[in-house]
Amino acid sequence: MRMSRYRCMVCGYVYYPDVGDPVYGIKPGTPFEDLPEDWVCPVCGADKDKFEEESEE
Question: At 3, is the pLDDT very low, low, confident or very high (cuts 50, 70, 90)?
Fold first, then answer.
């Protein structure tokens, strides 16, 4: 089962849980919901509330 991806509505960066975020030390397999509250977009610095879930099509 694939986890949902989340797109930053500010810059378009996509967080893929199966990749994680090596910039901030987030391990592959980390669901978006489990990211630390202070995690921000590695591209533009937007907060988590600026991300929207995208469907896997």
Answer: confident
The tokens describing 7, both together, are 């797109």
Strands of 1-57 (E only): list them.
5-8, 14-15, 51-54
Distance CA 48, CA 21 (A): 13
Reported pTM: 0.88
Beta-bridge partners for 7: 14, 52
**8 Å CB contact between 21 and 15:** yes
Under 8 Å between Cβ of 33 and 3: no
Q: What pLDDT, in 10s, does the model give residues 30-39? A: 999 999 999 9
